[in-house]
Protein backbone atom coordinates (compact mmCIF):
# COMPACT_ATOMS: atom_id res chain seq x y z
CA UNK A 1 0.00 0.00 0.00
CA UNK A 2 1.15 3.58 -0.45
CA UNK A 3 -0.16 4.83 2.91
CA UNK A 4 1.98 3.71 5.75
CA UNK A 5 0.46 3.29 9.20
CA UNK A 6 3.27 1.85 11.21
CA UNK A 7 6.96 2.71 11.03
CA UNK A 8 9.81 1.07 12.87
CA UNK A 9 13.30 2.55 12.97
CA UNK A 10 16.22 0.39 14.06
CA UNK A 11 18.90 2.57 15.66
CA UNK A 12 18.10 5.43 18.07
CA UNK A 13 21.24 7.48 17.48
CA UNK A 14 22.01 10.96 16.15
CA UNK A 15 20.11 10.18 12.95
CA UNK A 16 17.37 7.75 14.01
CA UNK A 17 16.26 9.81 17.02
CA UNK A 18 15.84 13.28 15.48
CA UNK A 19 14.67 12.01 12.06
CA UNK A 20 11.93 9.83 13.47
CA UNK A 21 10.91 12.54 15.93
CA UNK A 22 10.29 14.92 13.02
CA UNK A 23 8.55 12.26 10.89
CA UNK A 24 6.24 11.47 13.83
CA UNK A 25 5.65 15.13 14.59
CA UNK A 26 4.61 15.83 10.99
CA UNK A 27 2.62 12.60 10.51
CA UNK A 28 0.46 12.32 13.64
CA UNK A 29 -1.52 9.42 12.18
CA UNK A 30 1.53 7.24 11.63
CA UNK A 31 2.84 5.28 14.61
CA UNK A 32 6.62 5.54 14.79
CA UNK A 33 8.60 3.22 17.05
CA UNK A 34 12.37 3.73 17.39
CA UNK A 35 14.19 0.68 18.70
CA UNK A 36 17.75 0.10 19.84
CA UNK A 37 19.72 -2.66 21.53
CA UNK A 38 21.31 -0.05 23.78
CA UNK A 39 18.87 -0.03 26.73
CA UNK A 40 20.55 2.96 28.37
CA UNK A 41 20.04 5.05 25.25
CA UNK A 42 16.38 4.07 25.00
CA UNK A 43 15.87 4.91 28.68
CA UNK A 44 17.39 8.34 28.05
CA UNK A 45 15.05 8.93 25.07
CA UNK A 46 12.16 8.07 27.39
CA UNK A 47 13.38 10.28 30.25
CA UNK A 48 10.71 12.66 31.57
CA UNK A 49 13.42 15.29 31.88
CA UNK A 50 14.07 16.27 28.25
CA UNK A 51 17.42 17.81 29.17
CA UNK A 52 18.64 14.20 29.59
CA UNK A 53 17.98 13.12 25.98
CA UNK A 54 20.99 11.17 24.62
CA UNK A 55 21.40 13.58 21.70
CA UNK A 56 21.75 17.32 22.20
CA UNK A 57 20.21 19.28 19.32
CA UNK A 58 18.64 22.74 19.46
CA UNK A 59 14.85 22.35 19.17
CA UNK A 60 14.84 18.57 19.60
CA UNK A 61 13.29 18.54 23.06
CA UNK A 62 10.24 20.50 21.83
CA UNK A 63 9.60 18.03 19.02
CA UNK A 64 10.01 15.11 21.43
CA UNK A 65 7.59 16.64 23.90
CA UNK A 66 4.97 17.08 21.19
CA UNK A 67 5.16 13.59 19.72
CA UNK A 68 6.45 11.22 22.38
CA UNK A 69 3.74 9.01 23.82
CA UNK A 70 1.31 10.22 21.13
CA UNK A 71 2.63 8.49 18.01
CA UNK A 72 6.36 8.38 18.80
CA UNK A 73 7.75 5.58 20.95
CA UNK A 74 11.23 4.47 22.00
CA UNK A 75 11.69 0.82 22.87
CA UNK A 76 14.14 -2.08 23.18
CA UNK A 77 11.53 -4.52 21.83
CA UNK A 78 13.14 -4.78 18.40
CA UNK A 79 11.31 -7.88 17.16
CA UNK A 80 7.88 -6.69 18.18
CA UNK A 81 8.40 -3.35 16.41
CA UNK A 82 9.62 -5.09 13.23
CA UNK A 83 6.65 -7.44 13.28
CA UNK A 84 4.11 -4.60 13.53
CA UNK A 85 5.68 -2.22 11.01
CA UNK A 86 4.90 -1.87 7.31
CA UNK A 87 7.98 0.31 6.80
CA UNK A 88 11.32 -0.29 8.56
CA UNK A 89 14.17 2.23 8.57
CA UNK A 90 17.68 0.90 9.18
CA UNK A 91 19.53 3.70 10.94
CA UNK A 92 22.33 1.86 12.69
CA UNK A 93 25.96 2.90 12.74
CA UNK A 94 28.24 2.05 9.81
CA UNK A 95 31.71 2.91 11.16
CA UNK A 96 35.01 2.40 9.37
CA UNK A 97 36.19 -1.21 9.69
CA UNK A 98 38.82 -1.71 12.40
CA UNK A 99 39.77 -5.26 11.39
CA UNK A 100 40.25 -7.57 8.42
CA UNK A 101 39.96 -6.70 4.74
CA UNK A 102 39.45 -3.00 4.14
CA UNK A 103 40.56 -2.20 7.72
CA UNK A 104 40.72 1.57 8.23
CA UNK A 105 38.81 2.28 4.99
CA UNK A 106 35.76 0.18 4.19
CA UNK A 107 32.46 0.63 6.00
CA UNK A 108 31.72 -2.02 8.60
CA UNK A 109 28.35 -3.38 7.60
CA UNK A 110 27.94 -5.95 10.34
CA UNK A 111 25.26 -3.95 12.18
CA UNK A 112 23.29 -3.42 8.97
CA UNK A 113 23.51 -7.10 8.12
CA UNK A 114 22.34 -8.06 11.61
CA UNK A 115 19.29 -5.85 11.09
CA UNK A 116 18.53 -7.46 7.74
CA UNK A 117 18.78 -10.94 9.26
CA UNK A 118 16.56 -9.97 12.14
CA UNK A 119 13.95 -8.49 9.80
CA UNK A 120 14.11 -11.65 7.69
CA UNK A 121 13.53 -13.90 10.67
CA UNK A 122 10.70 -11.88 12.21
CA UNK A 123 8.69 -10.60 9.22
CA UNK A 124 5.36 -12.28 8.55
CA UNK A 125 3.89 -9.54 6.33
CA UNK A 126 5.25 -7.51 3.39
CA UNK A 127 7.68 -4.76 4.37
CA UNK A 128 9.37 -1.77 2.84
CA UNK A 129 12.93 -1.65 4.17
CA UNK A 130 14.57 1.78 4.01
CA UNK A 131 18.33 2.28 4.16
CA UNK A 132 18.72 5.43 6.25
CA UNK A 133 22.29 4.63 7.25
CA UNK A 134 25.01 5.78 4.85
CA UNK A 135 26.03 2.71 2.90
CA UNK A 136 28.47 1.77 0.15
CA UNK A 137 27.03 1.59 -3.32
CA UNK A 138 25.16 -1.65 -3.99
CA UNK A 139 24.52 -2.52 -0.33
CA UNK A 140 20.81 -2.67 -1.10
CA UNK A 141 21.53 -5.74 -3.20
CA UNK A 142 23.12 -7.51 -0.24
CA UNK A 143 20.22 -6.59 2.04
CA UNK A 144 17.75 -7.85 -0.54
CA UNK A 145 19.59 -11.15 -0.92
CA UNK A 146 19.47 -11.73 2.84
CA UNK A 147 15.81 -10.76 3.10
CA UNK A 148 14.76 -12.91 0.18
CA UNK A 149 16.23 -15.97 1.87
CA UNK A 150 13.39 -16.10 4.39
CA UNK A 151 11.35 -18.32 2.13
CA UNK A 152 8.09 -17.52 3.95
CA UNK A 153 6.51 -15.68 1.05
CA UNK A 154 7.02 -12.18 2.43
CA UNK A 155 7.77 -9.50 -0.18
CA UNK A 156 10.43 -6.92 0.57
CA UNK A 157 11.08 -3.66 -1.21
CA UNK A 158 14.39 -1.95 -0.48
CA UNK A 159 14.65 1.83 -0.68
CA UNK A 160 17.68 4.02 -0.20
CA UNK A 161 16.86 7.23 1.67
CA UNK A 162 20.14 8.74 2.88
CA UNK A 163 20.02 11.43 5.54
CA UNK A 164 21.54 14.85 4.87
CA UNK A 165 21.04 16.49 8.26
CA UNK A 166 24.06 18.06 9.93
CA UNK A 167 24.43 17.81 13.68
CA UNK A 168 23.77 20.97 15.63
CA UNK A 169 21.14 21.99 13.07
CA UNK A 170 19.36 18.63 12.71
CA UNK A 171 15.82 19.80 13.43
CA UNK A 172 16.03 22.76 11.07
CA UNK A 173 17.70 20.59 8.41
CA UNK A 174 14.90 18.04 8.70
CA UNK A 175 12.03 20.50 8.85
CA UNK A 176 13.35 22.64 6.00
CA UNK A 177 15.34 20.06 4.03
CA UNK A 178 16.95 21.31 0.79
CA UNK A 179 15.98 17.96 -0.65
CA UNK A 180 15.06 14.44 0.29
CA UNK A 181 16.46 11.62 -1.80
CA UNK A 182 14.65 8.34 -2.33
CA UNK A 183 16.13 5.57 -4.44
CA UNK A 184 14.14 2.51 -5.41
CA UNK A 185 13.63 -0.20 -7.99
CA UNK A 186 12.22 0.73 -11.37
CA UNK A 187 9.63 -2.07 -11.17
CA UNK A 188 6.00 -1.32 -10.38
CA UNK A 189 6.40 -2.60 -6.83
CA UNK A 190 9.51 -0.46 -6.46
CA UNK A 191 7.68 2.66 -7.62
CA UNK A 192 4.83 1.95 -5.20
CA UNK A 193 7.29 1.68 -2.33
CA UNK A 194 8.89 4.97 -3.37
CA UNK A 195 5.46 6.60 -3.38
CA UNK A 196 4.76 5.36 0.14
CA UNK A 197 7.89 7.09 1.42
CA UNK A 198 7.27 10.20 -0.69
CA UNK A 199 3.89 10.50 1.08
CA UNK A 200 5.59 10.52 4.48
CA UNK A 201 7.86 13.42 3.52
CA UNK A 202 5.17 15.24 1.55
CA UNK A 203 3.41 15.79 4.88
CA UNK A 204 5.67 18.80 5.30
CA UNK A 205 7.98 19.22 2.29
CA UNK A 206 7.05 20.55 -1.15
CA UNK A 207 6.97 17.79 -3.76
CA UNK A 208 9.73 19.33 -5.90
CA UNK A 209 12.21 18.86 -3.07
CA UNK A 210 11.58 15.11 -2.95
CA UNK A 211 13.89 13.53 -5.49
CA UNK A 212 13.51 9.96 -6.67
CA UNK A 213 16.29 7.99 -8.36
CA UNK A 214 17.47 4.46 -8.78
CA UNK A 215 18.95 2.81 -5.69
CA UNK A 216 22.59 3.05 -6.70
CA UNK A 217 22.42 6.74 -7.59
CA UNK A 218 20.90 7.43 -4.21
CA UNK A 219 23.58 5.49 -2.32
CA UNK A 220 26.38 7.12 -4.31
CA UNK A 221 24.91 10.62 -4.00
CA UNK A 222 25.20 10.50 -0.24
CA UNK A 223 28.91 9.61 -0.30
CA UNK A 224 29.48 12.21 -3.01
CA UNK A 225 27.69 14.99 -1.11
CA UNK A 226 29.84 14.43 1.96
CA UNK A 227 33.00 14.18 -0.14
CA UNK A 228 32.24 17.52 -1.84
CA UNK A 229 31.46 19.25 1.47
CA UNK A 230 34.60 17.92 3.15
CA UNK A 231 36.63 18.85 0.11
CA UNK A 232 35.60 22.49 0.50
CA UNK A 233 36.83 22.49 4.09
CA UNK A 234 40.14 20.87 3.13
CA UNK A 235 40.49 23.27 0.20
CA UNK A 236 40.10 26.36 2.37
CA UNK A 237 42.28 24.81 5.08
CA UNK A 238 45.06 24.27 2.56
CA UNK A 239 44.76 27.95 1.65
CA UNK A 240 44.84 28.88 5.36
CA UNK A 241 48.38 27.56 5.59
CA UNK A 242 49.35 29.49 2.50
CA UNK A 243 47.84 32.64 4.05
CA UNK A 244 49.90 32.18 7.19
CA UNK A 245 53.03 31.90 5.07
CA UNK A 246 52.30 34.93 2.90
CA UNK A 247 50.42 37.51 4.94
CA UNK A 248 47.14 37.00 3.12
CA UNK A 249 44.11 36.56 5.39
CA UNK A 250 41.97 33.47 4.89
CA UNK A 251 38.79 35.31 5.88
CA UNK A 252 39.35 37.86 3.13
CA UNK A 253 40.21 35.16 0.61
CA UNK A 254 37.13 33.10 1.55
CA UNK A 255 34.90 36.14 1.22
CA UNK A 256 36.43 37.15 -2.10
CA UNK A 257 35.96 33.74 -3.67
CA UNK A 258 32.63 32.98 -1.97
CA UNK A 259 30.95 36.00 -3.52
CA UNK A 260 31.37 34.32 -6.88
CA UNK A 261 27.97 32.68 -7.11
CA UNK A 262 29.51 29.70 -8.89
CA UNK A 263 31.59 29.03 -5.77
CA UNK A 264 29.19 30.20 -3.05
CA UNK A 265 29.97 31.38 0.46
CA UNK A 266 29.06 28.38 2.59
CA UNK A 267 31.49 25.81 3.99
CA UNK A 268 34.53 28.03 3.52
CA UNK A 269 35.29 28.46 7.20
CA UNK A 270 38.96 27.62 7.81
CA UNK A 271 39.32 25.55 10.97
CA UNK A 272 41.52 23.23 12.96
CA UNK A 273 40.16 20.47 10.73
CA UNK A 274 36.81 18.84 10.13
CA UNK A 275 35.54 16.17 12.50
CA UNK A 276 32.29 14.33 12.96
CA UNK A 277 31.19 10.80 12.33
CA UNK A 278 30.58 11.21 8.61
CA UNK A 279 33.12 13.06 6.50
CA UNK A 280 36.19 10.93 7.11
CA UNK A 281 34.30 7.66 7.18
CA UNK A 282 32.38 8.36 3.98
CA UNK A 283 35.40 9.59 2.03
CA UNK A 284 37.42 6.56 3.13
CA UNK A 285 34.52 4.48 1.94
CA UNK A 286 34.54 6.24 -1.44
CA UNK A 287 38.30 5.74 -1.68
CA UNK A 288 37.93 2.06 -0.82
CA UNK A 289 35.21 1.50 -3.39
CA UNK A 290 37.26 3.28 -6.06
CA UNK A 291 40.36 1.24 -5.21
CA UNK A 292 38.37 -1.99 -5.29
CA UNK A 293 37.19 -1.07 -8.77
CA UNK A 294 40.79 -0.39 -9.87
CA UNK A 295 40.19 3.36 -10.16
CA UNK A 296 43.49 4.45 -8.61
CA UNK A 297 43.40 8.10 -9.70
CA UNK A 298 39.86 8.55 -8.38
CA UNK A 299 40.87 6.98 -5.06
CA UNK A 300 44.00 9.14 -4.73
CA UNK A 301 42.08 12.31 -5.61
CA UNK A 302 39.60 11.91 -2.75
CA UNK A 303 42.12 10.55 -0.28
CA UNK A 304 43.94 13.86 -0.48
CA UNK A 305 40.99 15.53 1.31
CA UNK A 306 41.71 13.32 4.35
CA UNK A 307 45.47 13.80 4.11
CA UNK A 308 44.98 17.58 4.15
CA UNK A 309 42.66 17.33 7.14
CA UNK A 310 45.12 15.23 9.16
CA UNK A 311 47.82 17.77 8.32
CA UNK A 312 45.67 20.66 9.52
CA UNK A 313 45.09 19.08 12.95
CA UNK A 314 48.78 18.19 13.28
CA UNK A 315 50.08 21.59 12.31
CA UNK A 316 47.77 23.30 14.81
CA UNK A 317 49.27 21.21 17.63
CA UNK A 318 52.79 21.83 16.29
CA UNK A 319 52.11 25.56 16.19
CA UNK A 320 51.21 25.50 19.88
CA UNK A 321 54.40 23.65 20.85
CA UNK A 322 56.60 25.82 18.68
CA UNK A 323 55.09 29.08 19.94
CA UNK A 324 55.42 28.01 23.57
CA UNK A 325 59.20 28.10 23.10
CA UNK A 326 59.35 24.54 21.75
CA UNK A 327 58.22 22.82 24.91
CA UNK A 328 54.85 22.21 26.52
CA UNK A 329 56.14 19.65 29.01
CA UNK A 330 54.27 20.15 32.32
CA UNK A 331 52.63 23.29 30.96
CA UNK A 332 48.91 23.74 31.43
CA UNK A 333 46.98 24.22 28.23
CA UNK A 334 43.29 25.06 28.42
CA UNK A 335 41.01 23.65 25.73
CA UNK A 336 37.76 25.46 25.07
CA UNK A 337 35.57 22.95 23.29
CA UNK A 338 35.77 19.22 22.71
CA UNK A 339 32.72 18.54 20.48
CA UNK A 340 33.43 18.33 16.73
CA UNK A 341 31.30 21.46 16.13
CA UNK A 342 29.05 23.74 18.16
CA UNK A 343 25.53 22.87 19.34
CA UNK A 344 26.13 19.14 19.58
CA UNK A 345 27.35 16.77 22.30
CA UNK A 346 28.89 14.49 19.66
CA UNK A 347 32.67 14.12 19.77
CA UNK A 348 33.29 11.50 17.11
CA UNK A 349 36.48 12.29 15.14
CA UNK A 350 36.64 15.71 16.77
CA UNK A 351 39.86 17.58 15.97
CA UNK A 352 40.19 18.23 19.73
CA UNK A 353 40.94 14.55 20.37
CA UNK A 354 43.88 14.50 17.98
CA UNK A 355 45.29 17.86 19.04
CA UNK A 356 45.08 16.81 22.69
CA UNK A 357 46.73 13.48 21.96
CA UNK A 358 49.65 15.15 20.21
CA UNK A 359 50.14 17.69 23.01
CA UNK A 360 49.93 14.91 25.61
CA UNK A 361 52.75 13.15 23.77
CA UNK A 362 54.73 16.31 24.57
CA UNK A 363 53.69 15.92 28.25
CA UNK A 364 51.31 18.88 28.30
CA UNK A 365 48.61 18.99 30.97
CA UNK A 366 45.27 19.65 29.32
CA UNK A 367 42.24 21.15 31.06
CA UNK A 368 39.08 21.08 29.00
CA UNK A 369 35.82 22.95 29.19
CA UNK A 370 32.97 22.00 26.86
CA UNK A 371 29.38 23.02 27.63
CA UNK A 372 27.93 19.67 26.54
CA UNK A 373 30.65 17.01 26.78
CA UNK A 374 31.47 15.03 29.95
CA UNK A 375 34.96 14.10 31.11
CA UNK A 376 34.03 10.42 30.77
CA UNK A 377 33.37 10.97 27.06
CA UNK A 378 36.72 12.75 26.62
CA UNK A 379 38.56 9.88 28.29
CA UNK A 380 36.70 7.35 26.13
CA UNK A 381 37.74 9.29 23.02
CA UNK A 382 41.41 9.31 24.10
CA UNK A 383 41.45 5.68 25.16
CA UNK A 384 40.05 4.72 21.76
CA UNK A 385 43.28 6.00 20.17
CA UNK A 386 45.31 3.56 22.25
CA UNK A 387 48.26 5.96 22.47
CA UNK A 388 48.87 5.46 26.20
CA UNK A 389 47.31 3.80 29.25
CA UNK A 390 43.96 4.89 30.63
CA UNK A 391 45.68 5.99 33.85
CA UNK A 392 48.09 8.19 31.90
CA UNK A 393 45.24 9.76 29.94
CA UNK A 394 43.42 10.49 33.19
CA UNK A 395 46.52 12.05 34.71
CA UNK A 396 47.22 14.31 31.73
CA UNK A 397 43.73 15.47 30.76
CA UNK A 398 40.96 16.69 33.04
CA UNK A 399 37.68 18.45 32.40
CA UNK A 400 36.32 21.35 34.40
CA UNK A 401 32.75 22.56 34.79
CA UNK A 402 33.83 26.16 34.60
CA UNK A 403 35.69 27.84 31.73
CA UNK A 404 37.50 30.32 33.98
CA UNK A 405 38.78 27.44 36.11
CA UNK A 406 40.04 25.68 32.97
CA UNK A 407 42.02 28.77 31.96
CA UNK A 408 43.38 29.66 35.42
CA UNK A 409 47.19 29.41 35.54
CA UNK A 410 47.28 28.15 31.96
CA UNK A 411 50.18 28.99 29.66
CA UNK A 412 47.90 28.91 26.67
CA UNK A 413 44.29 28.56 25.58
CA UNK A 414 43.27 26.63 22.47
CA UNK A 415 39.83 27.09 20.92
CA UNK A 416 38.76 23.77 19.42
CA UNK A 417 34.99 24.24 19.00
CA UNK A 418 33.14 27.38 17.91
CA UNK A 419 30.60 27.47 20.79
CA UNK A 420 28.94 30.92 20.81
CA UNK A 421 29.39 31.39 24.55
CA UNK A 422 33.19 31.54 24.15
CA UNK A 423 32.80 34.94 22.50
CA UNK A 424 31.04 36.36 25.55
CA UNK A 425 33.63 35.52 28.21
CA UNK A 426 35.30 38.20 30.31
CA UNK A 427 38.62 37.87 28.51
CA UNK A 428 40.30 40.44 30.72
CA UNK A 429 39.53 38.32 33.76
CA UNK A 430 40.82 35.23 31.93
CA UNK A 431 44.03 37.04 31.04
CA UNK A 432 44.69 38.19 34.57
CA UNK A 433 44.55 34.62 35.89
CA UNK A 434 46.89 33.14 33.27
CA UNK A 435 50.66 32.64 33.17
CA UNK A 436 52.46 35.30 31.11
CA UNK A 437 53.03 35.63 28.26
CA UNK A 438 49.43 34.47 27.78
CA UNK A 439 48.77 32.79 24.44
CA UNK A 440 45.52 32.09 22.61
CA UNK A 441 45.37 29.70 19.66
CA UNK A 442 42.07 30.22 17.92
CA UNK A 443 41.43 27.11 15.86
CA UNK A 444 37.95 28.37 14.91
CA UNK A 445 38.62 32.05 14.28
CA UNK A 446 35.77 33.14 16.54
CA UNK A 447 37.47 35.60 18.88
CA UNK A 448 38.19 39.26 18.24
CA UNK A 449 41.92 39.47 17.70
CA UNK A 450 42.29 43.22 18.25
CA UNK A 451 40.36 43.13 21.51
CA UNK A 452 42.46 40.24 22.83
CA UNK A 453 45.71 41.88 21.81
CA UNK A 454 44.66 45.10 23.53
CA UNK A 455 44.23 43.11 26.75
CA UNK A 456 47.74 41.70 26.35
CA UNK A 457 47.18 38.26 24.81
CA UNK A 458 49.46 36.89 22.12
CA UNK A 459 47.07 35.59 19.51
CA UNK A 460 47.41 33.01 16.74
CA UNK A 461 44.47 32.41 14.44
CA UNK A 462 44.30 29.76 11.75
CA UNK A 463 44.83 31.38 8.37
CA UNK A 464 46.54 34.64 9.26
CA UNK A 465 49.90 35.78 10.59
P1 LIG B 1 24.77 6.30 16.20
O1 LIG B 1 25.93 5.47 16.59
O2 LIG B 1 24.49 7.57 16.94
O3 LIG B 1 23.44 5.41 16.33
C1 LIG B 1 23.32 4.12 15.85
C2 LIG B 1 22.49 3.30 16.85
O4 LIG B 1 22.20 2.02 16.29
C3 LIG B 1 23.18 3.02 18.18
O5 LIG B 1 22.42 3.55 19.24
C4 LIG B 1 23.27 1.49 18.24
O6 LIG B 1 23.11 0.95 19.55
C5 LIG B 1 22.15 1.06 17.34
N1 LIG B 1 22.28 -0.28 16.79
C6 LIG B 1 23.36 -0.85 16.18
N2 LIG B 1 23.08 -2.10 15.78
C7 LIG B 1 21.78 -2.35 16.15
C8 LIG B 1 20.92 -3.47 15.99
N3 LIG B 1 21.33 -4.57 15.36
N4 LIG B 1 19.68 -3.37 16.48
C9 LIG B 1 19.25 -2.24 17.12
N5 LIG B 1 20.02 -1.15 17.28
C10 LIG B 1 21.29 -1.20 16.79
O7 LIG B 1 24.91 6.58 14.66
P2 LIG B 1 24.31 7.82 13.81
O8 LIG B 1 25.20 8.99 13.94
O9 LIG B 1 22.88 7.95 14.14
O10 LIG B 1 24.48 7.28 12.33
C11 LIG B 1 23.65 6.26 11.82
C12 LIG B 1 23.84 6.19 10.32
O11 LIG B 1 23.44 7.42 9.71
C13 LIG B 1 25.29 5.97 9.87
O12 LIG B 1 25.28 5.14 8.74
C14 LIG B 1 25.75 7.36 9.48
O13 LIG B 1 26.74 7.33 8.49
C15 LIG B 1 24.49 7.97 8.92
N6 LIG B 1 24.43 9.44 9.00
C16 LIG B 1 24.85 10.10 10.12
C17 LIG B 1 24.74 11.49 10.20
C18 LIG B 1 25.20 12.25 11.41
O14 LIG B 1 25.30 13.48 11.33
N7 LIG B 1 25.48 11.61 12.52
C19 LIG B 1 24.18 12.20 9.14
C20 LIG B 1 23.76 11.50 8.02
C21 LIG B 1 23.88 10.12 7.98
C1 LIG C 1 27.86 16.36 7.65
C2 LIG C 1 27.08 16.91 6.44
O1 LIG C 1 27.11 18.33 6.47
C3 LIG C 1 25.65 16.42 6.49
O2 LIG C 1 24.95 16.86 5.34
C4 LIG C 1 25.67 14.90 6.53
O3 LIG C 1 24.36 14.40 6.59
C5 LIG C 1 26.47 14.40 7.71
O4 LIG C 1 27.79 14.95 7.67
P1 LIG C 1 28.04 16.99 10.23
O5 LIG C 1 29.26 16.14 10.21
O6 LIG C 1 27.02 16.73 11.26
O7 LIG C 1 27.28 16.90 8.82
O8 LIG C 1 28.47 18.53 10.36
P2 LIG C 1 29.05 19.62 9.34
O9 LIG C 1 28.35 20.87 9.59
O10 LIG C 1 29.08 19.14 7.96
O11 LIG C 1 30.54 19.80 9.85
C6 LIG C 1 31.53 18.79 9.72
C7 LIG C 1 32.86 19.30 10.20
O12 LIG C 1 33.39 20.28 9.29
C8 LIG C 1 32.81 19.98 11.56
O13 LIG C 1 33.93 19.61 12.33
C9 LIG C 1 32.84 21.45 11.21
O14 LIG C 1 33.36 22.23 12.24
C10 LIG C 1 33.76 21.43 9.99
N1 LIG C 1 33.58 22.60 9.11
C11 LIG C 1 32.40 22.80 8.46
C12 LIG C 1 34.63 23.49 8.93
O15 LIG C 1 35.70 23.33 9.51
N2 LIG C 1 34.45 24.56 8.09
C13 LIG C 1 33.28 24.78 7.43
O16 LIG C 1 33.21 25.77 6.70
C14 LIG C 1 32.22 23.87 7.62
From TrEMBL:
InterPro entries: 6-PGluconate_DH-like_C_sf, NAD(P)-bd_dom_sf, UDP-Glc/GDP-Man, UDP-Glc/GDP-Man_DH_C, UDP-Glc/GDP-Man_DH_C_sf, UDP-Glc/GDP-Man_DH_dimer, UDP-Glc/GDP-Man_DH_N, UDPglc_DH_euk. It catalyses: UDP-alpha-D-glucose + 2 NAD(+) + H2O = UDP-alpha-D-glucuronate + 2 NADH + 3 H(+). It holds the Pfam family UDPG_MGDP_dh_N. One of its GO terms (molecular function) is UDP-glucose 6-dehydrogenase activity. Keywords: NAD, Oxidoreductase. Pathway: Nucleotide-sugar biosynthesis; UDP-alpha-D-glucuronate biosynthesis; UDP-alpha-D-glucuronate from UDP-alpha-D-glucose: step 1/1. Belongs to the UDP-glucose/GDP-mannose dehydrogenase family. It is an enzyme of class 1 (oxidoreductase). It comes from Mesonia maritima. This is UDP-glucose 6-dehydrogenase. Its EC number is 1.1.1.22. Residues 334-449 form the UDP-glucose/GDP-mannose dehydrogenase C-terminal domain. It comes from the Bacteria.
Amino acid sequence: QTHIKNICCIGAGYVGGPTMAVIADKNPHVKVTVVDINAKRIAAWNDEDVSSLPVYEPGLSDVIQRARGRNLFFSTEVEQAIDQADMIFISVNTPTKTYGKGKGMAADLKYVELCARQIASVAKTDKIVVEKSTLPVRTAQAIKTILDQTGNGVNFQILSNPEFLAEGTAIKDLEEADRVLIGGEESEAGQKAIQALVNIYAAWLPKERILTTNVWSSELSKLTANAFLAQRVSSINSISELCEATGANVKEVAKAIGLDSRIGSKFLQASVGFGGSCFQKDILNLVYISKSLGLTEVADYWEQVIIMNDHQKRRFAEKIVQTLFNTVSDKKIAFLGWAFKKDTNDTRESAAIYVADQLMDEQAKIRVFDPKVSETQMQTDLNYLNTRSEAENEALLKATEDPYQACKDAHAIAILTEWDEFKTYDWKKVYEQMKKPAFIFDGRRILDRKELEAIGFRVYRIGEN
